[in-house]
Amino acid sequence: MNQTTPVRPDMFCPLLDDYRCGDFFFGTAHGRLLARDTLARIRRPVDAQLAAEVTTSLRTAREGGHDNPVAVGALPFHAGQDSNLHIPLTVARSAAAGIAPAPRPTGRGVLAVSRLPEPEQYAAGVARAVAAIRAGHARKIVLARALDITPADPVDPAEVLAHLVHHDPHAFGFAVSVTPRDTTSAHRTLVGASPELLLSRRGKHVVSHPLAGSIPRSPDPREDKARAQSLQASAKDHDEHSHVTEGIAAALLPHCRKLHVPAAPSVVRTATMWHLATRITAELRSPDTSSLDLALALHPTPAVCGSPLAAAHAVIAASEPFDRGLYTGMVGWCDESGDGEWAVTIRCAEINHRNVRLFAGAGIVADSCPESELAETSAKFQTMLNALGLPNTL
After folding, report:
1. Is residue 287 reached through a cis peptide bond, with omega within 30 degrees of 0 on the bond before it?
2. Do residues 87 and 103 make contact, with C-beta atoms less than 8 angstroms apart?
3. Which residues have CB under 8 Å from 232's CB, separation 6+?
4. Collapsing DSSP states into helix, strand and coil, what is residue 201?
5. Cα(first)–Cα(last) distance of the chain, in Å?
6. Which residues, in sequence order, are CB contacts of 314 under 8 Å at separation 6+?
7. Any residues with CB less than 8 A from the CB of 274 and at least 6 apart, and which?
8. Quick one: which of 130, 145, 165, 222 is 20 to 30 A from 157 by CA?
9. 217, 233 Cβ separation under 8 angstroms
């Protein structure tokens, strides 16, 4: 069986229209990948042996007659938790085509909302993180919060994915089936639109495009432009961003040469946020180093954890009353040649029919203000609230 499914050239919205719940979807404005059914599942703790096991599984698939096998899926934030990767039976790829914006989903009622933690508790956690940083225990700490929502109507992951891809086509739109750990757990789908490239490898060419330092966008064009300019001039946000670029450069250096890190970040936009961003490029030292090897060397970056990592992890564990799971992990693919693309798993939600969990986080540094960081997480929730047709006041 040839593993590459032909794509019709006349498709108005290539592959997105073919997605069904349980598939794996990953795509940007430059191309899309849709994977279906499972040849082999790779469920092992995220550790130093994971990339080697993936390579072995890909080789076994090819030897079994599957041309151009690819591993797809997502990895969690915490090391030691199980990966959520598999080698699919069929994979279709396409160049992305221009598509008309999808209408906003019909508004859904809400039966229940649980905030983890409550907003005032989150702000208090930020204040404690700032105190720890000022005391010299860390340089940056990323704190997240979650919303558990019970909508009045069932949620179709395919509709949410379509909205995200249409309204933010330059993001990494993704949908991942979250495999239940036991037979009593309900099936879940992680759906999102990440603006952040963790790592791309094409032959010897390596790219990472981290984001850190953010401000909500405004519907007023003049105010929106002013906010972008204020972000570009913000010493606090540049400080937050520098921890990320320095950490990524240090992690890539043992594996790469000709490493280029621009002297200053640029400002990029999503549908709801402005971000400071730096496009880091490099050349691979050894062709045996896969995209997954590199992504694991980077993960978790200071953009989603903090710096130093151990100190930031400790504060996160003490502050967040929920398990991040796949949130702030990575999602993407890797083929047998080592090429692949991995995005940071942010701007996302776990969907289970009538239960939805949303996530949002903010990077805390010495000059952070608890109220501002709380507002930033509220703004980041908007991407998924809009896609779900839920009230933006949650």
Report:
1. no
2. no
3. 267, 276
4. strand
5. 48
6. none
7. 214, 215, 216, 217, 227, 228, 231, 267, 268
8. 145
9. no
pLDDT, position 9 = 37
Measured in residues, the chain has a length of: 394
Nearest to 130 by CA among 364, 377, 375, 373: 364
- Number of C-beta neighbours around residue 372 at 10 A: 14
DSSP 29-78: SS-EEEEEEEEEEE--BSSTTHHHHHHHHHHHHHHTT-SS-EEEEEE-SS
> Residue 196 in contact with residue 346, Cβ under 8 Å?
yes
Residue with tokens 């906003």: 104
Please give the pLDDT value at position 267.
97
Q: Degrees (nearest 5) of the Cα angle 98, 102, 106?
A: 170
22: phi > 0 → left, psi -120 to 50 → alpha, else beta; which? Answer: left
* Partners of 343 in beta bridges: 197, 331
Q: What are phi and psi of 288, to 5 degrees?
A: -80, -10
- Which residues face 144 on adjacent strands? 361
CATH number of 16-97+111-388: 3.60.120.10
| pLDDT at residue 182 in the model | 55
Q: Which two tokens stand for residue 172?
A: 């990494």
33 DSSP β-pair partners: 26, 93
Rounded distance between C-alpha atoms, residue 149 and residue 349, angstroms: 10
**Active-site residues: which are they?**
140, 196
CB burial readout 34-67, b (16+ within 10 A) else e: bbbeebbebeeebeeebbeebbebbeebeeeebe
Mind listing the pLDDT tens digit for each residue in 141-176?
999 999 999 999 999 999 999 999 988 888 999 999
pLDDT in tens, 332-390: 999 999 999 999 999 999 999 889 999 999 999 999 999 999 999 999 999 999 999 99
Distance between CA atoms of 138 and 125, rounded to whole angstroms? 15
The upper half-sphere exposure of residue 359, i.e. CA atoms within 13 Å in the direction of its Cβ, equals 29
- The pLDDT assigned to 98 comes to 58
Considering only CA atoms, which of 56, 47, 45 is closest in space to residue 84?
45
Three-state SS for 172? strand
